[in-house]
Design brief:
The complex is a heterodimer. By secondary structure, chain A is α+β, with helices and mostly antiparallel strands. Helices cover 27% and strands 24% of the residues of chain A. In chain A, helix 8 links the parallel strand 15 and strand 16. The chains are: A alpha+beta, B alpha+beta.
């Protein structure tokens, strides 16, 4: 292959690196009003009265909207397939607030400062309602969503947003016949995406009265649909444009600022801008679902897993976007690496009066693999066997069916899935060598610094089977270049470049000949969006199909122009066996102006009933300071099977970027709340993401496999590497000092407590 | 809010004649985030950045005098500080991150009066004195007389911190900080030890700890025990009489006490092993 797998600079790299005006906020529209949000100081309250007279009286205030300005229409902020599997439990502005930070009113003013001043002058009378902050107590607490008209909530009275169950074989019977049984309960906290660019939207009405929405989103087409629904404005009159994005990680799979900004523009007729503050990003956008996972594993005398049961309790916070589907991924992934005949999983997602959780890179899988890979390590230790050999012994093999995928789809019944490519065993072997597993020496037992080594594995998907759909459109220009128009959303991931590579490979041209334009609902065809690790696999498939159609047209035109049957493509020429040839440039020019006139162009859609799993094995070396409990990660080796690698540099970047996120989740990142449910660490002073000084040495490598259902054999690489670093560190800490912690994060204080 | 940036100390004192309510701005690394987070803006903000007299480091045979506007980076690069005041030099390296160190000043760190201020424990341990000036007078006061409570300093109206005076000695010193990450972390505990050994005993010993009380505190009980017997195994009861830690977002009071004991033991053991 000429382009796939080759070093390819990003198509947007120069513009980004030279500071061109590429982000949402780099464009300003004259006469814009600025929006600020009044947020609830209470964790649960009914709004009795809102007096906005004083706030409206401030010079420069344009309008103030509250729940009184909107009908009681319920929707979900989750930008996912339609009809959404998430409960419809949200109003654009509600008369009840359900967490500290819930939206009460929005002010539009001539400046941000005036808007800020104005929200302080809005007088709200609240009737305080009882609040619950513990997911374990959710089912006995008073209902957060008793209102009629809300749909898709599994059990309103018991605060259960969603519920799932799946069963294969007979786990209980298998346990009774097992040689060994192991159990453990594992829990994870709320953690934040902490993407650099906050949520930001700019809206305006164009000369035809159409609503333009320039926004930092991962899901432009879902934005269009949901804005239309919530503002009751026709889809045909909405255009959503996604410029370059400063990171999303799932946080921008939510429709948060777009609906509010659009409502203001539609109300006032003026352009509107809404950018959230960093503090709002922390407590008022979205986070990773805390989960408590109880696992039970049965083994036979050969240390093969005979059965596993899993019980998942998930904390949604006050509303339920992605409640079911995140939990479904947790459930799926628990049963996607190790083969067994009997299993059962039950999951409940519950409401609490805390900030809202939703999609975050990994989407339920990080929680699953923290639990599963911790327990696998505990079992290996207990049985005195090598954790790598124990895992390898239980892996799925090529051609095996993944029964969980049949039993449990994303929010509905699944599709039969088979393991068509699996490089996990090779990933483990490669990592074992690169980390020096067999040579590793623990510290002297009397040393205050104890070193340890750990391993964990994980799997993810490539798009959502049977649901995600993407399309692409390609047209040829008379200089031999091609426009590639895709709905796919590059949120900093580099997908525009990967898709250009796929097009270039099929069209037999250099990547520079592909002009990519993406994510504009007026100009590009539909794509469900950038989530679920779908873009390379699903959107890439659409690009490949469209490019193949274009190549056919080029060959046909070539045959006509050369008047010869047997032609092929070489170096941007159509060449006949006789040696007669015509360049792409001449071929397209002729097609435009003189002979057999036509625009060479094609479109294609793609979806898949498969979601092939990329795999990863991560190894960690840690040092535990036994005098302070402080854990320093010394080295991470991350080996991924993402099928065929389309772009090596960008793939490495995906892996490297995921590691600090996973290390943060295991060691330093967690949202803290006071007794009233107010988040207390809403800035990077107190919410500790890893800094460059905290980062370990990282070695990234790949085991290439050929996934038969994928474009050029490529599986996804976006989410897979975020899962295993956390459990690898947990296992390394145990290896270092014998401290096993099952509830994240592992703070120095917890290590010290366990040691005593 | 009115903003002033006088060009000299005399201009500043003239300004004090006309305005009474003011806040002084130096590096701004605490003040500006505070304003962002809702601290009300003062009536008058006086920025001292143009008063170059306040950022000099002067050395005599007996002492070093550090201008209040000296940045942490400048402290870190100063060879005299590196030579005589190792604990302070160590603290400059552990202080926040590079960008903050380029802005933050020694005067700001003192006047911000944080219980966990990283420069403070070394300054206390070296017996730092503060030179405070008003239009017609000056006074030189030990640092502990000026920092009274978290965020509170005993400066009079119209008075500013001009410089910090540290006596040169042949003492050795060290600074230890535990933060929850490698940079940009507020101390969970920190301490400085300034000492001189005579054979196996301490001829001089001063130990101050931060983030375990409302202000930086001297571990007097521990000092006395170690002066008597430097090989004493340090236990919690030797520091408990002097500290009053709180539990907050970063750590519990218990943890602070426990790691302070461990880290002190570690360092004192190492000091004892020194030849």
């Amino acid at each position: 292959m000429k382009v796939i797998g080759k070093k390819t600079p990003r198509v947007d790299g120069v513009a980004l690196a030279t500071g061109k005006p590429v982000f949402t906020d780099d464009v300003s529209v004259a006469d814009t009003v600025f929006i600020k949000i009044l947020r609830s100081p209470h964790a649960h309250a009914k709004i009795v009265e809102i007096d906005k007279s004083e706030a409206m009286g401030i010079s420069g205030v344009v309008t103030i909207l509250t729940h009184e300005d909107f009908p009681a229409h319920y929707y979900t902020t989750a930008g996912q397939g339609y009809p959404e599997p998430s409960p419809r439990d949200t109003r654009i502005l509600d008369s009840t607030v359900r967490f500290v930070g819930d939206e009460v009113a929005i002010v539009a003013a001539e400046t941000n400062e005036i808007a800020e001043k104005s929200i302080e002058k809005i007088i709200v009378k609240y009737e305080i309602l009882p609040a619950n902050f513990e997911m374990e107590k959710a089912t006995e607490s008073s209902s957060l969503h008793p209102e009629s008209g809300k749909t898709g909530i599994y059990n309103t009275q018991k605060n259960m947003a969603s519920h799932l169950e799946a069963e294969i074989g007979d786990a209980e019977k298998a346990f009774s016949e097992s040689e060994h049984i192991f159990e453990g309960t594992y829990s994870t906290p709320f953690v934040q995406h902490a993407q650099i660019e906050p949520h930001i939207t700019l809206t305006w009405l164009d000369e035809n009265g159409r609503l333009n929405v320039r926004t930092a989103t991962q899901v432009p087409f879902h934005v269009r649909r949901i804005v239309a629904e919530v503002t009751n404005f026709p889809i045909s009159k909405i255009r959503v444009i996604k410029p370059r994005i400063g990171g999303g990680f799932g946080g921008k799979q939510e429709i948060l600022t777009e609906t509010l900004c659009s409502a203001i523009t539609l109300k006032t007729g003026r352009p509107a801008r809404l950018e959230l503050t960093r503090e709002e990003e922390f407590y008022a956008t979205r986070s990773r679902h805390p989960q408590k996972i109880s696992l039970k594993i049965g083994l036979d005398e050969n240390q093969k897993i005979t059965a596993m049961t899993a019980n998942i309790l998930e904390n949604c916070g006050a509303y339920g976007p992605h409640a079911l589907t995140v939990m479904s991924v947790t459930a799926q992934k628990l049963f996607s690496i190790y083969k067994m005949q009997n299993f059962k999983v039950v999951g409940n997602a519950v409401y609490t009066n805390l900030p809202i959780a939703a999609a975050y890179r990994g989407y339920g899988a990080p929680q699953a693999f923290f639990a599963l890979e911790s327990l696998m390590d505990e079992i290996a230790t207990e049985l005195g066997i090598c954790p790598i050999e124990f895992r390898k012994k239980n892996l799925f093999e090529l051609g095996d069916e993944l029964p969980i995928m049949r039993a449990l789809g994303e929010g509905r019944e699944g599709f039969k899935a088979f393991v068509n490519s699996n490089g996990l065993a090779e990933c483990m072997e490669k990592g074992r060598k690169l980390i020096g597993w067999d040579e590793f020496q623990q510290s002297d037992k009397n040393s205050p610094i104890q070193r340890g080594i750990g391993v964990a594995t994980s799997a993810q998907g490539s798009g959502i089977a049977g649901i995600d759909m993407a399309s692409a459109f390609i047209k040829m220009n008379e200089d031999g270049s091609f426009n590639l128009l895709v709905g796919a959303t590059d949120l900093g991931t580099g997908s525009d470049t990967a898709l250009a590579q796929i097009a270039a490979e099929v069209l037999c041209v250099a990547v520079e000949k592909i002009i990519v334009y993406s994510s504009d609902t007026d100009l590009t065809p539909f794509d469900t969006g950038a989530y679920a690790s779908s873009t390379t696999y699903v959107s890439g498939g659409a690009v490949k199909k469209a490019a193949e159609k274009v190549i056919e047209q080029i060959l046909e035109q070539g045959q006509k122009f050369l008047n010869l049957e047997n032609v092929k493509i070489e170096n941007e020429f159509v060449i006949a066996e006789t040696g007669d040839k015509i360049s792409f440039k001449d071929l397209c020019t002729k097609s435009f102006y003189t002979e057999n006139q036509m625009q060479i162009m094609a479109e294609a859609s793609n979806m898949s009933f498969d979601s092939p799993q990329p795999f990863n094995a991560t190894f960690a070396i840690v040092e535990v300071d036994t005098e302070t409990g402080f854990v320093t990660v010394g080295k991470i080796v991350s080996i991924t099977d993402a099928g065929k690698i389309i772009n090596p540099q960008m793939s490495e970047g995906q892996v490297e970027g995921s590691i600090p996120q996973s290390l943060g989740m295991v060691l330093s990142e967690f949202m803290t709340f006071d007794e009233n449910g107010k988040m207390t660490n809403t800035n990077f002073d107190d919410y500790h993401i890893f800094t460059s000084l905290d980062m370990p040495e990282i070695i990234v490598d790949f085991v290439e496999t050929d996934e038969p259902t994928a474009p050029f054999g490529a599986k996804a690489v976006a989410e897979i590497p975020i899962n295993a670093p956390a459990p690898a560190v947990v296992n390394a800490i145990f290896n270092a000092c014998g401290v096993r912690i099952r509830n994240l994060p592992i703070t120095p204080e917890k290590v010290m407590k366990k040691k005593i | 809010m009115n903003y002033f940036s006088p060009n000299s100390i005399s201009e500043l004192f003239n300004l004090f004649e006309s305005i009474k309510n003011y806040t002084i701005l130096v590096g701004g690394t605490d003040l500006m985030p505070g304003f962002e987070n809702g601290t009300p803006l003062p009536e008058n903000l006086i920025d001292l950045k143009n008063i170059s007299d306040l950022s000099e480091i002067r050395e005599t045979t007996e002492e070093i005098e550090i201008g209040a506007l000296t940045t942490v980076t400048e402290l870190q690069k100063n060879l005299v500080i590196h030579k005589y005041f190792n604990a302070l030099w160590q603290a400059t390296k552990e202080f926040a991150g590079v960008q903050i160190r380029n802005r933050a000043t020694i005067g700001g760190n003192i006047c911000n009066a944080s219980p966990s201020g990283d420069l403070l424990t070394p300054l206390y341990s070296f017996g730092a004195k503060l030179k405070l000036i008003r239009s017609k007078s000056e006074r030189i006061v030990p640092i502990e007389n000026i920092i009274t409570n978290p965020g509170e300093i005993a400066l009079n109206n119209g008075e500013i911190l001009q410089s910090v005076i540290l006596p040169k000695t042949d003492f050795q010193s060290l600074f230890i900080k535990l933060g929850l990450r490698e940079s940009m972390a507020i101390s969970v505990v920190n301490f400085a030890i300034v000492y001189k050994k005579n054979c196996d005993n301490f001829e001089h010993l001063s130990i101050f700890a931060g983030a375990v009380a409302p202000t930086i505190i001297r571990l007097k009980t521990l000092e006395n025990v170690l002066l008597d017997n430097p090989k004493t195994d340090i236990t919690a009861n030797l520091i408990v009489p002097d500290i009053s830690p709180i539990s907050d977002i970063r750590a519990s009071a218990n943890y602070r006490e426990q790691v302070l004991v461990n880290l002190l033991n570690n360092e004192v053991r190492r000091m004892n092993d020194e030849q």
